[in-house]
């Protein structure tokens, strides 16, 4: 279940640390991001520049974890919360026939190293032949390991996928992986709040991928810099969980730290009955907590964007950036029509390369 009690315990313990002060929650109406952040702050620096936050779930794969495991080994440390950590090999495994194993030497070394590390440190592991094995961003939702209101990290930028469940999920680097292994906490600076409200209903034949490409074409690849994006509006509420995961996954292409969608009945129906989901009386307790997570009326956002998708076409990327998007009924623009010189140089790259 969610780690409300655990984060409160860690918060009390860490008030003894030098250079930090007891955490105080945001005042007034709060966004979904504010609520999860406030719930997980252990302590903050006196100047408010950064905070220590508790991490509920840690997903691990073979590419970014070896040095983190070695750091634990050298320091003589163990993984602090085995029950909050889940490992899978996914970046270097064959996508079809696996009977012959992995033939590429570097890929085999990475997967074998992960297998050795998880065995040494006692982590739960979905290896290459486990029927639960899959893409690291997908196994959490499939198993019920991903739940609303949680903080979730992984050594991969597209960890934002889990934000579809109303979780604060983001990618971290190798040194941060070691920090989470050892302490189940992470030092972070709070991001700004951004809300993208999607009005209208997606036309037949238009998917969530088209929706998020349309959004990126509007805000640009730097539009979400320094923000956590909350997706809201009629079109978002109508999406399946799989489609919501697509939207949140691509928040990174829009420059954001993470993407989130408030949990609702669709979210809870997806989670219910999953192997690691709350059961019995804990299910009702969890649902009560999850229903209190959506942003409150009057919440303040640093940036707001409204997008009407009632009449959009399927979208196509044409250039060297995810913001280079046109509808299928459109045409690739002429770089010389771009007024911004820097954007003109970037958009003309395909022609200069092909010429």
Roughly what fraction of the amino acids lie in strands?
A: 15-25%
Average of the residue pLDDT scores: 90
Would you report the number of β strands?
Answer: 15
Taking the alpha carbons of the first and last residues, their distance comes to 57 Å
Q: Please trace the helix and strand order, writing H or E for each element.
A: HEHEEEHEHEHEEHEEHEHHEHHEEEHH
The description of the largest β-sheet is:
5 strands, parallel
Which segments are poorly predicted (pLDDT under 50) over 5 or more consecutive residues? Answer: 1-24, 350-355
The percent of residues in helical segments reads 25-40%
The tally of helices reads 13
Task: Provide the fold topology.
Blueprint: H1 4-13, E1 20-22, H2 32-40, E2 41-45, E3 51-54, E4 57-60, H3 66-75, E5 85-88, H4 105-121, E6 124-126, H5 136-143, E7 151-154, E8 168-171, H6 174-183, E9 185-188, E10 192-199, H7 208-219, E11 227-232, H8 234-237, H9 241-249, E12 258-260, H10 265-271, H11 280-291, E13 303-308, E14 315-317, E15 325-327, H12 341-347, H13 349-354
Parallel strand pairs: 4-5, 4-7, 5-6, 7-8, 10-11, 10-13, 11-12
Antiparallel strand pairs: 1-2, 2-3, 3-9, 14-15
How would you concisely characterize the structure shown here?
This protein is α/β, with parallel strands linked by helices. 34% of the residues lie in helices and 18% in strands.
């Amino acid at each position: 279940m969610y780690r409300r009690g655990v984060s409160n315990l860690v918060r009390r313990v860490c008030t003894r640390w030098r250079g930090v002060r007891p955490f105080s929650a945001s005042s007034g109406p709060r966004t979904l991001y504010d609520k999860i952040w406030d719930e997980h702050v252990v302590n903050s620096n006196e100047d408010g520049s950064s905070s220590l936050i508790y991490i509920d779930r840690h997903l691990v794969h073979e590419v970014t974890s070896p040095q983190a495991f070695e750091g634990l080994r050298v320091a003589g440390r163990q993984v602090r919360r085995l029950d909050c950590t889940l490992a899978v090999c996914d970046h270097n495994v064959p996508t079809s026939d696996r009977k012959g194993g992995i033939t590429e030497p570097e890929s085999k070394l990475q997967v074998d190293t992960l297998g050795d590390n998880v065995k040494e440190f006692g982590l739960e592991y979905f290896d290459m032949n486990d029927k639960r094995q899959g893409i690291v961003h997908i196994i959490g939702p499939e198993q019920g390991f991903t739940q609303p209101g949680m903080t979730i990290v992984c050594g991969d930028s597209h960890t934002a996928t889990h934000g579809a469940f109303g979780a604060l999920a983001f990618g971290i680097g190798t040194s941060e992986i070691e920090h989470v292994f050892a302490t189940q906490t992470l030092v972070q600076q709070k991001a700004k709040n951004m809300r993208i409200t999607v009005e209208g209903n997606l036309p037949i034949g238009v998917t969530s991928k088209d929706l998020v490409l349309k959004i990126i074409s509007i805000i640009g690849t730097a539009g979400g810099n320094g923000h956590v994006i909350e997706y809201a509006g009629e079109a978002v509420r109508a999406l399946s969980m799989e489609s919501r995961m697509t939207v949140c996954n691509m928040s990174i292409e829009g420059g954001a730290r993470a993407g989130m969608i408030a949990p609702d009945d669709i979210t809870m129906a997806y989670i219910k009955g999953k192997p690691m989901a709350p059961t019995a009386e804990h299910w009702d307790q969890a649902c009560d907590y999850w229903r209190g997570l959506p942003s409150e009326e009057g919440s303040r956002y640093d940036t707001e964007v409204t997008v009407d998708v009632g009449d959009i076409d399927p979208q196509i990327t044409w250039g060297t950036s995810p913001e280079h998007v046109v509808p299928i009924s459109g045409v690739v623009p002429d770089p010389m029509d771009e007024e911004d010189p820097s954007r003109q140089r970037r958009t003309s790259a395909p022609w200069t390369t092909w010429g």
